[in-house]
Design a protein that fits this description.
Number of strands: 0
Radius of gyration: 20 Å
Number of helices: 11
Distance between the termini: 44 Å
Largest sheet: none
Strand content: under 5%
Oligomer: single chain
Length: 339
């Protein structure tokens, strides 16, 4: 609420950007290993499932962004107990979303694969990947929620270290399951599920220990079940949800069109493009995650000028970074795709 904005943005945004880049790194390495070990059809099968993942990611983002924005506003206004109760509610909603998503995949897998337009070996690969991944949905959602809650608790570096550790574990498990144990496409899904769940477990232990010791700051409290609060969380997180749904929908339409008019190899090429774009997008996602506590705290405390100052500085950085990424990808597209 009082530190110089430039230093405060750097302190919070740089670890968040690093955290998101680690996520992009493990997803890209995951794609490289799948493509090189199992071939283009396996890589295409992972990409064709993205719309399903995007749907549940959209709901998770709505809870993570909307809930944590509300939590930080309450902390900035000095209403710490309400912030703790809101965290309890968001976690309960996240668990419910994860269980529901897993149940939908379990009972509706054949219909989902048919709807996505898969058939033959591509459908088999996609089905194996999704069957292996869906049991981890709940913990994957909790990782997304609690990572931002840890930043709201004033621990941006801890959040980044945990996310970096999850990414490196994912890469190591990819190599183990794909190249040593030869688990096939299920190995890639298993590596992702275990790695992201491990991050969620670390965050859960952090907040549970704080709760048990009744420490200051953000911790779990009895959930505050109020319809108005749930509505506020949903509205606050709706932009992130719709953004994720839009990417999932356009990816679905591209996938169907490419499969219809070209084939699995061309779909694998499109998947490569998606991995490259992810590196650019994660920079902006990290920036927005990093400044969220600053914006929300100061909004809750009524510090309008600091909110405006943070927004102007962040938008300026985003424009410059966006231009830089554009010129890099424009100049080195072929070599980046070949890698």
């Amino acid at each position: 609420l009082s530190h110089p904005l430039g230093k405060l943005i750097s302190k919070n945004a740089l670890p968040a950007i690093a955290s998101m880049l680690f996520i992009a790194l493990y997803q890209a390495v995951d794609g490289i290993m799948v493509g090189r070990k199992l071939g283009p059809e396996a890589l295409a099968s992972v990409n064709i499932l993205y719309p399903v993942v995007a749907l549940f990611a959209a709901l998770a983002l709505m809870l993570a962004v909307g809930g944590n924005a509300r939590i930080a506003v309450l902390l900035g206004a000095g209403e710490t107990q309400k912030a703790r109760a809101t965290l309890g509610l968001v976690v309960i909603l996240g668990v419910g979303t994860g269980i529901t998503g897993s149940a939908v995949i379990h009972f509706g897998l054949p219909f989902i694969l048919q709807f996505l337009g898969t058939s033959g070996s591509l459908g088999i690969l996609a089905g194996e990947y999704l069957k292996t991944l869906y049991p981890f949905f709940t913990l994957m959602i909790l990782q997304l929620i609690l990572e931002q809650s840890t930043r709201n608790d004033g621990k941006p570096y801890m959040a980044t270290i945990v996310m970096a550790g999850s990414a490196l574990l994912n890469i190591a498990l990819d190599y183990l399951f794909l190249y040593i144990l030869n688990y096939g496409i299920s190995g890639a899904a298993l590596a992702t599920g275990i790695a992201q769940s491990s991050g969620a477990v670390v965050f859960l232990i952090y907040f549970l220990k704080k709760t048990a010791r009744r420490q200051n700051g953000l911790r779990f409290a009895s959930p505050l079940f109020k319809l108005a609060l749930v509505k506020a969380i949903a509205i606050n997180g709706s932009s992130e949800m719709l953004g994720s749904l839009a990417v999932g929908l356009t990816t679905f339409l591209f996938n169907r069109s490419i499969l219809m008019y070209a084939g699995a190899n061309e779909l694998a090429a499109f998947a490569v493009v998606q991995y490259l774009l992810m590196f650019g997008l994660t920079v902006f996602m990290g920036l927005s995650n990093g400044i969220q506590p600053i914006l929300s705290y100061n909004h809750g405390a009524g510090q309008v000028k600091r909110v405006q100052g943070t927004l102007i500085r962040s938008l300026s950085v985003a424009i410059l970074v966006g231009l830089l990424i554009f010129f890099i990808m424009r100049s080195y597209a072929e070599s980046m795709a070949a890698f």
